[in-house]
Design brief:
Elements: E1 8-11, E2 20-23, H1 44-61, H2 65-80, H3 90-105, H4 130-142, E3 149-152, E4 158-161, H5 164-169
Antiparallel strand pairs: 1-2, 3-4
Helix pairs in contact: 1-2, 2-3
Length: 173
């Protein structure tokens, strides 16, 4: 599932042109004095393949399925109008796709980025072992499962303070 802040990589090797796409990843920051990596040209076939992969991944995994469908419709309409036909720079194509996807989704974490270097394909996340689950349970227990404060108000009511990270760390049981 694609969740804001989570990096989903799409590994795509096509004639050393558009070698890597990442969605929902922080922006690249180039330190002062560093060179921007070289760009490469992209052809119509590669553009089509990249669009198909990005849209498939969004439809399969985006947290809001109706938004993924709206993004696909918008991008497909742009393809039909030939809006991407004149783009020959891989970097410019990634930036344009990002802008067009964000225009529909309003999700500033969603990005398509070009990398000149071939990056390794991301491995699926492994389920934790029984030992890892038990260690996590002990860790969470030692932190009172994230509950920082519980106050009893009037009869049958209470207020609790739980940091947001704690809600994502331990499944509801």
């Amino acid at each position: 599932m694609i969740v804001a802040g989570t990096c989903l990589q799409l590994h795509h090797k096509i004639k050393n042109q558009f070698q890597h796409i990442k969605e929902i990843a922080p922006s690249n920051i180039v330190a002062q004095g560093e060179r921007t990596p070289p760009d490469s040209t992209i052809d119509a076939s590669t553009r089509k393949q990249v669009i198909d992969i990005v849209l498939k991944r969004l439809n399969d995994s985006y947290v809001f399925p109706e938004v993924a469908q709206a993004m696909e419709k918008s991008i497909r309409d742009r393809v039909a109008k030939g809006e991407y036909d004149q783009i020959s720079s891989s970097r410019a194509f990634a930036e344009t796709l990002t802008k067009d996807l964000q225009a529909v989704s309003k999700d500033k974490h969603l990005r398509v980025r070009y990398s000149h270097e071939v990056l390794p394909e991301r491995q699926p996340r492994a389920e934790p072992t029984a030992e890892q689950r038990e260690q996590e349970r002990r860790d969470m227990s030692g932190m009172n499962y994230g509950f920082e404060k519980v106050e009893r108000l009037r009869a049958r009511s209470a207020v609790s303070s739980v940091p947001r990270w704690a809600l994502t760390q331990w499944p509801r049981q």
